[in-house]
Amino acid sequence: MAGNGAVDRRSVNVPDGLAGERLDAALARMFGFSRSRAAELISAGHVIVDGHATAKSDRVHAGAQLDVEIPSLVDPIAIVPEMVEGIKIVHDDDALVVIDKPVGVAVHPSPGWTGPTVVGHLVAAGFRIATSGASERQGIVQRLDVGTSGVMVIAKSEHAYSVLKNAFRHRTVDKTYHALVQGHPDPLKGTIDAPIGRHPRHDYKFAVMADGKHSVTHYEVIEAHRFASLLEVHLETGRTHQIRVHMSALKHPCLGDLTYGADPVLAARFGLERQWLHAVGLGFEHPESGEYVEYHSGYPDDLQRALDVIRDAH
């Protein structure tokens, strides 16, 4: 994959000693690539022999001109410093930074994700974050899905990292979400205790599975409308997609959450292009002062608009 558009272009002639070799073998020898990397470049159309495209198994002759484009290889989980529009700094001190994450931003780099990241933004903005954890996840003590917006904390000092990581592990952090779900959950207040594991057929999804990880979600209806209910949700555990999976299992998926069974017609009617789910609050003991601190995030425009339309729907 070409990284940042950097391409190394070279033009060379095949030496006598490689005459009759397969193109991939000759290329590997001449440039010091592995055979598989040479084959990738050939199949991607980056190698021209005497002005013509060619196959990796073709034989080369002495003096043939090879024009080769070599895109720079980028580590898929390297942190790319990049300012991200829409990330708001809610609180910042020597121990931690609390941000309001917009939709469409991943918390840290991962294979297959080429979009913006929280970590990349903080590095670009000059924040020094804790170096504990895997290099691409430095300072990360919690995560929000790419498609979920809201408040989250990142550790800046090593001490804050270990204290906060422990707090999340021991579930002493208060995580509050608001979710607009289809229909009306019965009872209006309840606890979902159902293990979550990877979906057996779709590896990008999760599901309630007998052999999954222990997962507990507490919910309470705070507004009931004709088509949907606004819930306040408290997470006891923090599994990937936990609220989305649990609400879907109750047959009340988050409005707009097409991955987990939401009605696309309803989503379109209320102008939603993602699940209606927002991390509204985070409370924990500050790792330095020990006092209880709370941080909040208001609804983003798209979620607020959809809620306004739902409130007015009769």
Automatic annotation (TrEMBL):
<comment type="similarity">
    <text>Belongs to the pseudouridine synthase RluA family.</text>
</comment>
<feature type="domain" description="RNA-binding S4">
    <location>
        <begin position="21"/>
        <end position="78"/>
    </location>
</feature>
<keyword id="KW-0413">Isomerase</keyword>
<keyword id="KW-0694">RNA-binding</keyword>
<dbReference type="GO" id="GO:0003723">
    <property type="term" value="F:RNA binding"/>
</dbReference>
<dbReference type="GO" id="GO:0000455">
    <property type="term" value="P:enzyme-directed rRNA pseudouridine synthesis"/>
</dbReference>
<dbReference type="InterPro" id="IPR020103">
    <property type="entry name" value="PsdUridine_synth_cat_dom_sf"/>
</dbReference>
<comment type="function">
    <text>Responsible for synthesis of pseudouridine from uracil.</text>
</comment>
<dbReference type="InterPro" id="IPR002942">
    <property type="entry name" value="S4_RNA-bd"/>
</dbReference>
<dbReference type="Pfam" id="PF01479">
    <property type="entry name" value="S4"/>
</dbReference>
<dbReference type="InterPro" id="IPR006224">
    <property type="entry name" value="PsdUridine_synth_RluA-like_CS"/>
</dbReference>
<protein>
    <recommendedName>
        <fullName>Pseudouridine synthase</fullName>
        <ecNumber>5.4.99.-</ecNumber>
    </recommendedName>
</protein>
<dbReference type="InterPro" id="IPR006225">
    <property type="entry name" value="PsdUridine_synth_RluC/D"/>
</dbReference>
<dbReference type="Pfam" id="PF00849">
    <property type="entry name" value="PseudoU_synth_2"/>
</dbReference>
<feature type="active site">
    <location>
        <position position="145"/>
    </location>
</feature>
<dbReference type="InterPro" id="IPR050188">
    <property type="entry name" value="RluA_PseudoU_synthase"/>
</dbReference>
<dbReference type="InterPro" id="IPR036986">
    <property type="entry name" value="S4_RNA-bd_sf"/>
</dbReference>
<dbReference type="InterPro" id="IPR006145">
    <property type="entry name" value="PsdUridine_synth_RsuA/RluA"/>
</dbReference>
<dbReference type="GO" id="GO:0120159">
    <property type="term" value="F:rRNA pseudouridine synthase activity"/>
</dbReference>
